[in-house]
Amino acid sequence: ADESSGYESESAGGERAGAAAAGGSRGRQRRARTAFTSEQVCRLEKTFQRHKYLGAAERRKLAAALQLSEIQIKTWFQNRRMKLKRQI
Fold first, then answer.
1. Among 9, 11, 58, 74, whose Cα sits 20 to 30 Å from the Cα of 19?
2. 48 and 54 Cβ atoms separated by less than 8 Å
3. Within 1-55, where are the H helices?
């Protein structure tokens, strides 16, 4: 129940040193990795089986249904297509 489906605030204190050590030499912080719930992943996978690419309208609808941003949906589909390409 503690899973996050969004990004942590970029103004979170104490992370600046960690970001600089991880390659963020200009002080920019990386966003926290999204922890998708099992329900979100299941729905994303089912949608991916039907459509390898989503149009803007379908992406908006899926993002609203899963309570994710459109960018998170777009990135997930890009990563999933690359995973499929590696498997083939």
1. 74
2. no
3. 16-21, 38-50
**What is the CATH superfamily name and number for domain 38-87?**
Homeodomain-like (1.10.10.60)
Sequence-distant (≥ 6) Cβ neighbours of residue 21 within 8 angstroms: none
Task: Express each pLDDT in 49-67 by its tens digit.
Answer: 999 999 999 999 999 999 9
State the Cα–Cα distance between residues 62 and 60, nearest whole angstrom.
6
In degrees and rounded to multiples of 5, residue 51 shows phi and psi of: -135, 120
Question: pTM for the complete prediction?
Answer: 0.66
Cβ–Cβ < 8 Å for 46, 56: no
Q: Which runs of consecutive H residues, i.e. helices, occur in 1-88?
A: 16-21, 38-50, 56-66, 70-87
